[in-house]
Amino acid sequence: MVRFASVLAALALCLVVAGQEFHEGLSYGDSDQQKIDLWIADTEEPAPLVIFIHGGGFRGGTRKQIRQTVVEQFLSQGISFASIDYRLTDKGPYPMQMHDAARAVQWLRANAAKFNLDKERVAAYGGSAGACISMWLAFHDDMADPRSDDPVSRESTRLICAGSTNGQPTLDPRTFYKWFDVRILVPHPALLPLFDIKSYDEVERPEVRKLVEDASPITHLTKDDVPVFLSYGGPDSVVTDKTNPGIWVHHPRLGIMLKERMDAIGIECHVQYRDGPAVTEYRNLTAFLIAKLKG
Predict the structure, then answer these.
(1) How confident is the model over 223-242, as pLDDT tens digits?
(2) 56 CB burial (10 A radius; 0-12, 13-18, 19+)
(3) 132 and 165 in contact (C-beta within 8 Å)?
(4) Is the pLDDT of residue 286 over 70?
(5) Which of 104, 17, 112 lies closest to 53, judged by CA?
(6) How far is the C-alpha of 177 from the C-alpha of 180, rounded, in Å?
(7) What angle do CA 242, 247, 250 make, to 5 degrees?
(8) Which of 56, 121, 151, 276 sits at 20 to 30 Å (Cα–Cα) from 106?
(9) Beta-ladder partners of 26
(10) Nearest alpha carbon to residue 171 among 208, 125, 123, 225
(11) Do the Cβ atoms of 285 and 165 come closer than 8 Å?
């Protein structure tokens, strides 16, 4: 019986689904929330890799949120696919979540030869909190430590592009007030535990202000950063209901303002939203990621 159970466990870790190699629950850290599901594209040459980072307000969600049909879109183009978990705010505040995602990127690169991955062609995307993390990785300086004794830490955290669905290029309430031209917005409950605070008033504390600024992807934006594609489900309408934080944290104004900043320094940025101008270069976010990874 023990032998049968061990065989089942082995099968769970390495399956072949529709001709594709699949590894479930790969550990890149000691926590049960530091796991990766990895689908390997059927290619002779090392395959590019796209990494999905789930949403859930930094306090919920799982790597299992990804749909198999989405995975197949990338596999059919010769692109391997990873979906990662990261430690949520019940385990600790920022920067844990972003640093976990960076570590997952490094772990995948360190194991590129084992999984036939092209470590030079790695992209990330996600929804909401996962989109914010993806943009943070896209803009943040490389976190590799070439002098580390740990081979994973020596790997790069940089991406070749990033994608976002309803993502936040800033987590700073002061920037939200400026972009929406309001004096106050009801705080999103997910952001308070992210910074281990009880109210937005605490953002005025220097140590909290420093954290909030560092957690905001746009803080790290420089002219050597990579292209991004941002998708939002709603129109760029005036936020009249300032009591519903779910509206303004997923509002296309966030992408529009990021694009304005990226256009000014000459970095490719596409924003797609309801009733907005058409993105003529790419049909959608998936098309963008595939084109960049294959190009």
Answers:
(1) 999 999 999 999 998 877 66
(2) middle
(3) no
(4) yes
(5) 104
(6) 5
(7) 140
(8) 56
(9) 36
(10) 208
(11) yes
